UniProtKB/TrEMBL annotation:
This is Response regulator transcription factor. It comes from the Bacteria. Residues 1-14 have a biased composition (Low complexity). Pfam families: GerE (PF00196), Response_reg (PF00072). It comes from Streptomyces cathayae. Keywords: DNA-binding, Phosphoprotein, Transcription, Transcription regulation. Residues 21-137 form the Response regulatory domain. Coiled coil: none annotated. PANTHER family: TRANSCRIPTIONAL REGULATORY PROTEIN NARL-RELATED, TWO-COMPONENT RESPONSE REGULATOR. The modification 4-aspartylphosphate is found at residue 72.
Length: 232
């Protein structure tokens, strides 16, 4: 009598890598809902946290340490570009995508300078966003066609003229204060938010007026709208 064959241990399908954990930051709840539907519909992507302003995006990133942060540009308190700079500094392992309505070369170059790996337009998010997430996690940049053209054109112009990228007109701290002033915060409120003194806020405000050749808070607000720090 032959011995029975040993029982086989069920192996089942091999498990793949865990899905990419995503932080989604946009100040419009309807946009977040739509983008989340796109992302959560993919087996390799999952949204683990949401934020409706740039400061909250930083807080949520610190709490959840996502693999990828998707940031809108025009958000209250801190813009997506400001949040991107902070995340690049404090959570370098978190990769960053900018998702925006602005087809704007200035924002595109600032996004790259802030540490973003890609720039996706909201108008084509249903087509491009999933691939942008995957490309970013593979360590590849993702740029929409217009951005690629801008990058090449800018590089060729700089190379031809022997120039470097122009410096920003104002510092990152002045940009933070400009945004908060334009949003209607008082000097004391800004001081509390940024953990500095009201006198320091006033000094930065005076520097902004002088640098930008502006007269008052109203003109600062108009400038902030023009450069995309706040929405009209």
């Amino acid at each position: 009598m032959t011995d029975p064959a040993p029982a086989r241990t069920p192996t089942g399908p091999a498990e793949g890598p865990p899905p990419t954990r995503i932080l989604l930051a946009d100040d419009h709840a309807l946009v977040r809902r739509g983008v989340r539907l796109i992302l959560d519909g993919e087996p390799d992507l999952t949204v683990v946290a949401e934020a409706d302003n740039g400061a909250e995006a930083i807080e949520q990133a610190r709490a959840h340490e996502p693999d990828l942060a998707i940031l809108d540009i025009a958000m209250p308190r801190l813009t997506g570009l400001q949040a991107a700079r902070e995340l690049s500094r404090t959570l370098p392992q978190t990769r960053i995508l900018i998702l925006t309505m602005y087809d704007n070369e200035q924002f595109f170059f600032e996004a790259l300078g802030a540490g973003a790996s890609g720039y996706v337009l909201k108008s084509v998010a249903d087509r491009d966003l999933v691939e942008a997430c995957r490309a970013t996690m593979r360590g590849e940049p993702f740029l929409y066609p217009g951005a690629v053209n801008a990058l090449i054109r800018n590089y060729l112009e700089l190379a031809r003229d022997g120039r470097s990228l122009p410096a920003k007109a104002i510092t990152d701290r002045e940009e933070e204060i400009l945004k908060l002033v334009a949003e209607g915060h008082t000097s004391q409120q800004i001081a509390d938010l940024l953990v500095i003194s009201p006198k320091t806020v006033e000094r930065h405000r005076a520097n902004l007026l002088a640098k930008l050749d502006l007269k008052d808070r109203l003109e600062l607000t108009r400038y902030a709208i023009r450069v995309g720090l706040i929405e009209p």
